[in-house]
Amino acid sequence: MSNLTRKFGVCSVGKHVACVNKKATKAHKVWEGMIQRCYHNTDKNSVYWGCEVDSRFYDFQDFAEWRVNQVGFDTETFEIDKDILAEGRKLYSPDHCVFVPPQINSIFTGHRPSIYNTPLGVSYIKREDTYRVTLRDENGNTVTFRSKDADECFRFFVINKITIIKAIALKWRDQIDVRVYEKLYNITESQILDYFKNKPQTHKQ
Asked: Are residues 26 and 93 in the same domain?
């Protein structure tokens, strides 16, 4: 256990094991990683800047007990997510955290407006003097749309992003928390905009 975890969390001894043969268990890695992202982050541009951990997760035993009762906790590739159920949420809490596949965990990243002040999801390609939207569908295929009209590109982005999110929800329906499925499958345009507004993004031109 790191000095950082000692300062911001309590790795108490109990039912749940934190280390086996000097190697951290998956539960402990997730718990410590959560604390590290929130309290050992000096980059103000980080997506985790300002995030906190609910006091009910301070103790490793409490977190581990909550974890084993969550859908997908034992799926090796699933990741903990704090804000799908509550967009803009900066608190890791037992009320809103869920385990989801990377495809869902990254569903609201990217698509930040470019330096040309374009709408959400729209890039301006200077050498072509045109606007472009690039998306990935539920199967990982690239979907691209170009237009001279930025607003037309924006409408394409929103309509197709909703369609893709619904398809991804259906794809993972039997493996994820029903609350996640319902949130994604019933997503609206205003919720799409809120998610991206409240989530710092990275964008590559």
From this structure: yes
Instruction: Kindly state whether residues 19 and 90 are assigned to the same domain.
Output: yes
Reported pTM: 0.84
Domain count, the chain: 2
- The pair phi, psi for residue 170, each rounded to 5°, is -65, -40
**Phi-psi domain of 172 (left: phi exceeds 0; alpha: psi -120 through 50; beta: other):** alpha
Return the number of other C-beta atoms located less than 10 Å from residue 30's C-beta: 18
Contacts of 84 (CB under 8 A, 6+ apart): 98, 100, 104, 105, 107, 108, 180, 183, 184
- Closest by CA position to 168, among listed 203, 194, 200, 140: 140
What is the pLDDT averaged over residues 169-178?
Answer: 98
| Boundary (domain end) residue, out of 102, 131, 146 | 102
Strands (E), 96-154: 98-100, 123-125, 130-136, 142-147
Query: Which domain range does residue 67 map to?
Result: 3-102
Cβ–Cβ contacts within 10 Å for residue 11, how many?
Answer: 18
Per-residue pLDDT tens over the stretch 115-131:
668 998 999 999 999 99
Q: In which residue are the tokens 């009910």 written?
A: 56
Q: How many helices (H) and strands (E) does the chain have?
A: 7, 9
